[in-house]
Amino acid sequence: EVQLLESGGGLVKPGGSLRLSCAASGFKFFSFGMSWVRQAPGKGLEWVSSIHDSGNSRYYADSVKGRFTISRDNSKNTLFLLMNSLRDDDTAVYFCVSHGAAEGYFDYWGQGALVTVSS
Amino acid sequence: DIQMTQSPSTLSASVGDRVTITCRASQSISRWLAWYQQKPGKAPKLLISEASTLENGVPSRFGGSGSGTEFTLTISSLQPDDFATYYCQQYDSYWYSFGQGTKLEIK
User: Fold this and answer.
1) Touching check for B62 and chain A: CB below 8 Å?
2) Out of B1, B55, B101, closest to residue A44 by CB
3) What is the pLDDT along chain B (107 residues), one digit of tens a residue?
4) Confidence tier at A102 by pLDDT (50, 70, 90)
5) Which tops the pLDDT comparison, B87 or A100?
6) CB-CB: which of A45, A109, A112 is closest to B98?
7) Quick one: which of A61, A101, B83, B104 has the fewest CB in 10 Å?
8) Chain B residue at shortest CA distance from A35
């Protein structure tokens, strides 16, 4: 059974940093691209960042480029999102998602980690 | 960046109705489109990939069609469990994007 378990969410002040982790199990993590998708309270889904299976290619939404860094450790089946210079509008539930069959759709989702940016 | 626009934003319907949700892309995305269902407080669930390929376990009353810039999600006979919010997502470009969502409400 595929499982994606996010951790590291919490309350942080504007300008602060936070690192999210996503522990993956039940599939060959090293063979699939991974992404982070977020959802602000009461709002729709927003793609944040993606990383290829090898970790060699990374992509970011304009809203987070230069502030967030996606990475992965294939030896530990773990995906990361380092978030710096956090702003109020980064407040959201952050979902860890796996890419289906090496494509860009998201077949498995974690339960989400809440990040609240507030003074 | 590719912009995705869904319509309507809200849809009121009754059990047994046939409903259609439309998703338009700002440029051609071939058939690289997925549909998701999300219920309150839950993670989204993948329903359809590549515009019309139903995921395992998704009821056959769900159907997807389209290519290029215009796509539809159809539910042939609404069931109580189908009242939720639906999102389309393009994956033609590595800079993925979602539609704004369509909330399907009980009339």
Assistant:
1) no
2) B101
3) 999 999 999 999 999 999 999 999 999 999 999 999 999 999 999 999 999 999 999 999 999 999 999 999 999 999 999 999 999 999 998 899 999 999 999 98
4) low
5) B87
6) A45
7) A101
8) B96
| Residue A64 per-residue DSSP state | T
Using DSSP bridges, classify how beta strands B4-7 and A113-117 pair: parallel, antiparallel or unpaired. Answer: unpaired
End-to-end CA distance of chain B: give it in Å, rounded.
Answer: 36
**Interface membership of B98 toward A (CB under 8 Å):** yes
- Residue partners of A69: CB distance under 8 A and separation at least 6: A58, A81, A82, A84
- Probe site for chain A from B10, B96, B98 (most A CB atoms < 10 A): B96
All residues of chain A having their beta carbon less than 8 Å from the beta carbon of residue B30 are: none
Report the SS3 class of residue A60. strand
Residue A23 burial (10 A CB sphere; 0-12, 13-18, 19+): middle
Length of chain B: 107
Q: Which two tokens stand for residue A88?
A: 């109020």
Cα separation, B50 vs A103, in Å, equals 9
Chain A CB within 8 Å of residue B64 CB: no
